[in-house]
Every structure is written in structure tokens, then in C-alpha cells.
């Protein structure tokens, strides 16, 4: 169950003041990418950096990194147990996300990070991460309609909640590609607090970094990635100006080309999990805004191959299926629908019924074959591989689906390695059977 509010997290952390400074990021889309860019750049610049994002991708602790490395499971479990004991002793009744947030912040203390890059879990104003009180810069990424049942029915209401991370005396960076309604709502909050603000636009990167402009010219950077990079660079300059003015941000910009953010427009080979050796596109687009970005990428990069696209899709219960999938799945495409499994630490998250997904997709004009596979993800992927026959293939609709796919792939790789080791042992001198 999701319970927004700051009272429980305040009690969880009241005994342990945070020893590090923060960069705080809110928004509907782009938060994770901006976090990844900032963490990578800070680490490249020699700053000891922690990063906390949500949800986790494969393992529950991979949402916390120290210096670009996932925190050790043993340390995570040690700190988590201490937080849970504190919760029980004080009778707080903290939510799963509040316990996770407190665990991440305590790990940052334990690891003596200089700067923690922290992504909001949901909303902003009442999100557990908004307990932060030593923020160097706040970032408002791209805002769209999502989680309306908790944040509000309109873009204005949702924006007001996300702008709730802005604090008096703390400068902010705003993605200037936001819709006018969102921008005007953010501007009201900025004026109310009397804080400095930078509005970034990817079509004018020179205003933020000449090195970034050069990067855009040299690499195939998608429009949404450009917007996120502009936010990251502008925020980094503001943050380091206050704590490490000796670091030249422009000298780090080239490092952005090597940042990887799994599950977002990720080209991946699923062999040995399945027989297909051609890459597939893996993307966690889960709302209309991120689906639009995915659709543009597919139209530009995959459809020119001349073959219909084959999809494997799943979605969280409560998502608007029509706005999520209908604009990106086209006539002639083939679709396998499935469901992700239970999400560790997030028992309230449920998958949409694959039969309902299939019925919705079948209403698309001149759609190709559509088949439902319930929660059998591997069968769905195998069917899609057969249908695609080496042509373009996309797995999308939920980060939780992405997580399950990556877990299946990891398990298949382990089994393949074990099989290879067994064969090597049998063929070793003196052990060969005759």
C-alpha cells in the first residue's frame, strides 16, 4: 500500500542526521536518466557519490549505488534490518518505500558519500525523499499524467505536487520542454519561494554547456535524452559551484556518451534465454508520455527495416491501456501479451490481465496476430521471436516486465555457464569418459 506523508520517515531518521548533501529530482519521466547522468559525472570527477532511484531493476538493493557500483547485498540487508528494528521499536508502522528510503540514506551515511543523487518515488511534496534538508539543487524533469489517484486528476495538480520538492534558498533546474501548464505552475512555486531557476532546452544546449552542444553533434542522442542531459549538466554546475568549484563540468561532459541506463531504449540480445541472436529493444515505457518517446524511436529506427514490429507487452493494473499502446502499435504488427510476476518489496503492484490487454490491442485497425500468454513470459517471448523471424522486436509496457525479462536472462546465462563448466570438467585430462 502506498502511503504518502513525511511524519513516519521523520521519526525513522530523527536519530541519524544525514551527513551528506543532496541533488533531488522529481518528475514523471526522465528522473532515472538524469540520476544516472549525475552519478556518472560526479564519480568521474572524483566526488564520492551515492544514488537512490526507484523502483529497483533486478534485485531490491540495485536501486542504491555507491560510486556507480550497486551496494553490496550484505550491507543492504544489515542496514535494512537496523531500520526495520527501529520501526518496530518505535511503533512507527512505516511503509515499504519509507523503510527503503531510510535504508538508502543510512547507507549513504555509512559509506560517507559527499553527494547523494536522490530520485523522488512518487509525487514530491509528500514523498519520503522530501525529508532531505541539505539540498544543493532541485530538478524538475518532464511532467505528465500518471498516478492520478494519488497526485491529482489534472496536469496542474500533479505538477504542484512534484514542485513540492522545491525549497527556499535552494536553486532549481526545470526541463523547459514541459507543457505550458506545467511550466506556469512551477513558476508560481518558484516565485513564491523566491529562488533562482534555470530552464533548460535541448535545442539551445550552448546556453548550458558548449561541450554538451559538441556531444549532440558527435553522437546520435535522442531528443528526450538531450533534454535530460541538459538538466543534468545545469544542475551539476549549480551543485559543484557550492561544494567543489575546482571541478570543471565541461571537462566531464564527454563521459555522458558512456552512460548506460538499463531498460530504457536498451538494445539487448536474449540468447541463451531464447534462440534468437538478433537484438531486441527493451523499454520500460509505462505512461503515455514515455510511450510517445518509445513510439518515435521505433518509427525512426525499427520500422524503416520494412518488416512489421513484433511486440511483447505487459502493464500495471490501473494503467490507461489505450493511451499507452494504441499510438505505438501499428497495423500489421504482431503482439504477445503477458503479465509480470510479484514485485519484491512492492506487494501493491499488480499486473493487468493479459486477456484484457489482448482484447484492447485487437481493436487496432488491421493488427496482425495477437496472442495472450497469461504470466508465461518466456513462452510469450519465444512466440514473438518466431513471429519476428529476425525482424524488429520490442518488449515494453512496464519496468516490472523489463525486470522479469532481465532476471530470466541472468538465470539462463548462469545455467549456460554452469553447463559449459561441467562440459569442460568432463573433457579435462584424465576425466574423459571412454
TrEMBL record:
Molecular function terms, GO-annotated: ATP binding; dihydrofolate synthase activity; metal ion binding; tetrahydrofolylpolyglutamate synthase activity
Keyword Metal-binding set for record: yes
Pathway: Cofactor biosynthesis; tetrahydrofolylpolyglutamate biosynthesis
EC number: 6.3.2.12
Catalytic activity: 7,8-dihydropteroate + L-glutamate + ATP = 7,8-dihydrofolate + ADP + phosphate + H(+)
Keywords assigned: ATP-binding, Ligase, Magnesium, Metal-binding, Nucleotide-binding, One-carbon metabolism
Span list, region Disordered: 413-434
Residue ranges of coiled coil: none
SUPFAM superfamilies: MurD-like peptide ligases, catalytic domain, MurD-like peptide ligases, peptide-binding domain
Broadest EC class assigned to this enzyme: ligase
GO cellular component: cytosol; mitochondrion
UniProt superkingdom: Eukaryota
GO terms, biological process: one-carbon metabolic process
The family this protein is said to belong to: Belongs to the folylpolyglutamate synthase family.
PANTHER family xrefs: DIHYDROFOLATE SYNTHETASE-RELATED, FOLYLPOLYGLUTAMATE SYNTHASE-RELATED
Protein name: Dihydrofolate synthetase
Organism the protein comes from: Aspergillus tamarii
Lineage: Eukaryota, Fungi, Dikarya, Ascomycota, Pezizomycotina
Amino acid at each position: 500500500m502506498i502511503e504518502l506523508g513525511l511524519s513516519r520517515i521523520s521519526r525513522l531518521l530523527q536519530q541519524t542526521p544525514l551527513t551528506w548533501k543532496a541533488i533531488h529530482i522529481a518528475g514523471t519521466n526522465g528522473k532515472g536518466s538524469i540520476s544516472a547522468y549525475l552519478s556518472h559525472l560526479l564519480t568521474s570527477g572524483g566526488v564520492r557519490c551515492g544514488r537512490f532511484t526507484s523502483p529497483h531493476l533486478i534485485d531490491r538493493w540495485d536501486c542504491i549505488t555507491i560510486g556507480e557500483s550497486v551496494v553490496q547485498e550484505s550491507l543492504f540487508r544489515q542496514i535494512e534490518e537496523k531500520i526495520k528494528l527501529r520501526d518496530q521499536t518505535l511503533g512507527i508502522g512505516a511503509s515499504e518505500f519509507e523503510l527503503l528510503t531510510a535504508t538508502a540514506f543510512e547507507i549513504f551515511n555509512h559509506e560517507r558519500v559527499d553527494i547523494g543523487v536522490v530520485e523522488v518515488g512518487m509525487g514530491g511534496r509528500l514523498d519520503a525523499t522530501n525529508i532531505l534538508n541539505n539540498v544543493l539543487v532541485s530538478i524538475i524533469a518532464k511532467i505528465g499524467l500518471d498516478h492520478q489517484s494519488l497526485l491529482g486528476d489534472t496536469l496542474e495538480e500533479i505538477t504542484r505536487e512534484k514542485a513540492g520538492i522545491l525549497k527556499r534558498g535552494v536553486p532549481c533546474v526545470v526541463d523547459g520542454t514541459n507543457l505550458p501548464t506545467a511550466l506556469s505552475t512551477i513558476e508560481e512555486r518558484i516565485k513564491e519561494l523566491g529562488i533562482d531557476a534555470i530552464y533548460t532546452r535541448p535545442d539551445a544546449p550552448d546556453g548550458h554547456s558548449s561541450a554538451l552542444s559538441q556531444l549532440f553533434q558527435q553522437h546520435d542522442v535522442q531528443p528526450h535524452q538531450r533534454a535530460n542531459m541538459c538538466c543534468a549538466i545545469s544542475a551539476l554546475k549549480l551543485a559543484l559551484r557550492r561544494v567543489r568549484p575546482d571541478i570543471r563540468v565541461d571537462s566531464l561532459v564527454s563521459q555522458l556518451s558512456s552512460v548506460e541506463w538499463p531498460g530504457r531504449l536498451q538494445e539487448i540480445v536474449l540468447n541463451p534465454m531464447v534462440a534468437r541472436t538478433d537484438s531486441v529493444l527493451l523499454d520500460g515505457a509505462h505512461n503515455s508520455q514515455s510511450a510517445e518517446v518509445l513510439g518515435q524511436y521505433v518509427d525512426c529506427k525499427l520500422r524503416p527495416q520494412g518488416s512489421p514490429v513484433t511486440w511483447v507487452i505487459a502493464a500495471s493494473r490501473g494503467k490507461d491501456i489505450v493511451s499507452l499502446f494504441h499510438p505505438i502499435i501499428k497495423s500489421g504488427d504482431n503482439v504477445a501479451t503477458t503479465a509480470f510476476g510479484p514485485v519484491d518489496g512492492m506487494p501493491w503492484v499488480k499486473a493487468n490481465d493479459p486477456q484484457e490487454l489482448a482484447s484492447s490491442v485487437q481493436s487496432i485497425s488491421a493488427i496482425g496476430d495477437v496472442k495472450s500468454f497469461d504470466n508465461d513470459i518466456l513462452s510469450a517471448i519465444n512466440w514473438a521471436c518466431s513471429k519476428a523471424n529476425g525482424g524488429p522486436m520490442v518488449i515494453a509496457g512496464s519496468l516490472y516486465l523489463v525486470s522479469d525479462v532481465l532476471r530470466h536472462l541472468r538465470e539462463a546465462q548462469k545455467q549456460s555457464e554452469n553447463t559449459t563448466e561441467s562440459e569442460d570438467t568432463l573433457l579435462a585430462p584424465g576425466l574423459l569418459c571412454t
